[in-house]
Specification:
Layout: E1 31-35, H1 47-55, E2 58-61, H2 64-73, E3 83-85, H3 91-103, E4 107-111, H4 123-132, E5 137-140, H5 145-153, E6 160-164, H6 170-180, E7 186-191, H7 196-207, E8 211-216, E9 224-229, H8 230-237, E10 246-250, H9 260-271, H10 276-287, H11 291-304
Parallel strand pairs: 1-4, 1-5, 2-3, 2-4, 6-7
Antiparallel strand pairs: 7-10, 8-9, 8-10
Helix pairs in contact: 3-4, 6-7, 7-8, 9-10, 9-11, 10-11
GO molecular function: rRNA (cytosine-2'-O-)-methyltransferase activity
Enzyme class: transferase
Subcellular location: Cytoplasm
Length: about 300
């Protein structure tokens, strides 16, 4: 997933800094080696990843410019080896070439633009093809926007679901959130800064007023984490222009805090003094239930009553 590029060198730096690590350029075992790359700070690369980049026979990357710059920063020479672009738009054409290299007994290293390969990343099809063909597939673990966000969000991390990017269309996005509402795990989303405000509002409708966090520009200079109930985050981002890479986390579905009879009683009392919409909103927030479900019950009670 593209969650940002490697941190650039200062503009006045004529040459890359002297690397602190001398990569091990000994022969790398044949196979497909997936490398996690920094989501922001270039120094988050692992020593093993640098060793693989230094020794692989063939290099492939979601963005070759990003990988080339990362290698320059850390003093890893390309040394005449092929550096091939592999992304969503050319995967069908590039996979056979990479598989031929594996068939010839070469070591192939693949790096996503930022973060861990296969997490919202085109490396998935390459991995499946290599496994199906019987080639070794290995991973050099490292940076991940999902795990970094879980670390700083302050939400339960013993069970989580990475849901990826919500659909762009409003209707599809609402259905997407509704399907996730009952999952007893912390939900993790990637989202466009242009859509984060709207999505937060739809999350509040689907999930109720759960605790949540919006993580922006993780590991970068302007890193920011905003935590609180979803309704508070909706208000915080309502009129705000947001830039950068966004990860949104929402607390797991809570145990039912009221049985059906208690829920109906709370709604009937609220409907005595409020509209259906306001009654549903107040009861949903008070009981920690999805607003949409409570609204449907409120409509039924209003029709019957």
């Amino acid at each position: 997933m593209s969650t940002g590029e490697a941190e650039p060198l200062p503009e006045d730096a004529a040459e890359p800094p002297e690397p602190l690590h001398r990569p091990d350029r000994r022969s790398l075992p044949p196979g497909l080696h997936f490398i996690a790359t920094p989501i922001g700070a270039a120094r988050d690369i692992t020593l093993r990843a640098l060793d693989i980049l230094a020794a692989a026979d063939v290099l492939a990357a979601e963005d070759t410019r990003t990988l080339r710059r990362l290698m320059e920063i850390h003093g890893v020479p390309l040394a005449g080896r092929p550096l091939l672009a592999y992304h969503d738009h050319n995967g069908e054409q590039m996979r056979p070439r990479l598989l031929r290299a594996l068939e010839e007994g070469k070591s192939v290293a693949y790096a996503s633009e930022a973060g861990t390969p296969l997490v919202a990343d085109p490396g998935f099809q390459l991995s499946r093809a290599a496994i199906a063909a019987g080639f070794p597939v290995l991973a050099a673990p490292g940076p991940s926007a999902v795990l970094a966000a879980l670390t700083v969000a302050g939400l339960p991390s013993d069970r989580f679901l990475f849901a990826g990017f919500p659909p762009a269309a409003a209707g599809a996005r609402r259905r997407f959130f509704a399907e996730l509402a009952g999952i007893p795990a912390t939900l993790v989303f990637y989202e466009s800064p242009k859509r984060v405000s709207r999505s937060l509002g739809e999350m509040a409708e689907a999930f109720g007023n759960r605790e949540a966090a919006v993580c922006r520009e993780l590991t970068k200079r302007f890193e920011e984490v905003t935590r609180g109930p979803l309704q508070d985050l909706v208000a915080a981002f309502a009129d705000r222009s947001v830039k950068g890479e966004i990860v949104v986390l929402v607390d797991r579905a809570q145990a039912v805090v009221a049985d059906a009879a208690s829920l109906e009683a709370a709604l009937e009392a609220a409907l005595q003094v409020m509209s259906v919409k306001d009654a549903a909103a107040e009861v949903a927030q008070k009981l920690g239930l999805p607003r949409r479900d409570v609204y449907q019950l409120a409509l039924r009670l209003a029709e019957e009553g």
